[in-house]
Amino acid sequence: GATLGVMGGGQLGRMFVHAAQAMGYFTAVLDPDPASPAGLVAHYHVDTGYLDEQGLAQLMQRSAAITTEFENVPAAALVTLGAHRPVAPGAEAVAVCQDRAEEKALFVRAGVPCAPHARIETEAELAAVPDSLLPGILKTARLGYDGKGQVRVADRAALAAAWGQLKQVPCVLEAMLPLALEISVVVARSAFDEVVQLPVQQNLHRDGILAVTQVPAPDASPALQQQASDCAAALARALGYVGVLCVEFFVLQDGRLVANEMAPRPHNSGHWSIDGSDVSQFELQVRTLTGLPLVAPRQHSPSVMLNLLGDLWFPQGASAAEVTPPWAKVLALPGVHLHLYGKASARPGRKMGHLTVTAASAAEARDVALQAAALLGLPAF
Ligand code: ATP
Ligand code: MG
Ligand code: MG
């Protein structure tokens, strides 16, 4: 088979490699860490040069087609690779997803509702933001993740302080919205304009980090789910996107749907699809990259995903001790699928793995997931 290349060696790259290998492809991973989660399982690990010319040249030499698992790969690198190899997603679409201001402009263009917001690049723009955006959240336009690079601001004084603290322009100020719940949709679009989706995913965050995903979404009405799916498809088409795209949404307390942000790659909230769907988000990534047909994924099992953060390895805040969580007990529960990413050391907040519970009913999946959470010392949901 041909070799598929991926930029970035994290857990998303690792799960892409698993899917690609299952379909008979060889794989090459570009990551500076010689023990990266994806590099450990790929056929070729390009760990020299990373995103410089040398690294890109080596990846290109190995690969028939190239994708990315890393949200912030410089658009220039995708342009360089795209001149010689099929690259999905493309540089332009990735550039939009990397910039909250451009992302919001796309939402508006595509007729997808989003939070009231203002782009702030200068002191004058800072002074000119309308009162209606306060209280709000000031976010750096670029490079934020897991709630990093954003500050909640109650009033103008706090806004000015946050602006000084973030020290990055441009920023986007968003009105603080009254959330009822958070959902996301994974959509895949092929070069031939085939669009398929995973069902709507309901997400619970703790400390700005995804903690639990439930599919089907227990609290989103069918009409709302349809609207979210339609929005995700519209955004993929508006971007001319080829690949896997995740769109995060808020559901407001008054029932309205609001798009939050997009990720130009498979997403943590779609990990359940490895075990609960007959086509996973990573298989969709392989298919879009290689021009294979897209077929609609079919969820065969209600699923609950729990993220396994590094905190599990530091019970009760113990600092130096790295322990092994009670996997055997958790795996004695029915329908538990454990995924560990092969990261050498745990840090609190670091994504070390996840587990997905599949069951015959949503109630049973939730019940078993709560038992697993209790065994691991994770909060109930
Ligand atoms: P990710 O790791 O998903 O990329 P991120 O750092 O890009 O996260 P956002 O998704 O923008 O951050 O925001 C993180 C969380 O903060 C959201 O999931 C939501 O819970 C909350 N949040 C963000 N924006 C708003 C808003 N305008 N109103 C209310 N809550 C918000
Ligand atoms: Mg984000
Ligand atoms: Mg987010």
From TrEMBL:
Gene3D superfamilies, sorted: 3.40.50.20, ATP-grasp fold, A domain, ATP-grasp fold, B domain
Tell me the PROSITE patterns matching this sequence: ATP_GRASP (PS50975)
Q: In which pathway does it act?
A: Purine metabolism; IMP biosynthesis via de novo pathway; 5-amino-1-(5-phospho-D-ribosyl)imidazole-4-carboxylate from 5-amino-1-(5-phospho-D-ribosyl)imidazole (N5-CAIR route): step 1/2
- Give residues annotated as binding ATP: 100, 139, 144-150, 174-177, 182, 205, 260-261
Extract the NCBIfam families matched here.
Answer: PRK06019.1-2 (NF004676), PRK06019.1-3 (NF004677), PRK06019.1-5 (NF004679), purK (TIGR01161)
- Annotated family: Belongs to the PurK/PurT family.
According to UniProt, the name of this protein is N5-carboxyaminoimidazole ribonucleotide synthase
* Originating gene: purK
